[in-house]
Amino acid sequence: MAMIAHAHMARYGTTRDMLSAVSVKNHRNGSMNPFAQYPFPVTAEQVASSVMVADPLRILDCSRSQTARLP
Q1: Tens digits of per-residue pLDDT, 1-28?
Q2: Does residue 18 contact residue 56 with C-beta atoms inside 8 Å?
Q3: Helix/strand/coil for 64
Q4: How would DSSP label each residue in 22-43?
């Protein structure tokens, strides 16, 4: 996924702030679903300061199924 994100950023000029905005939106939507994997809202600052999984993706950009495969 990180390689795809890098390719998208290079091709379309996507920024890290734009990726954070998607996470913020997804978490806001998830906060309204009691069955969501991450049922809480987050801020762009929380996303930006969360643990790096694989550059440019941070833990709050990823689902549990994606991060469960990490060593």
Answers
A1: 899 999 999 999 999 999 999 999 999 9
A2: no
A3: helix
A4: HHHHHHHHHTT-TT-SS-S---
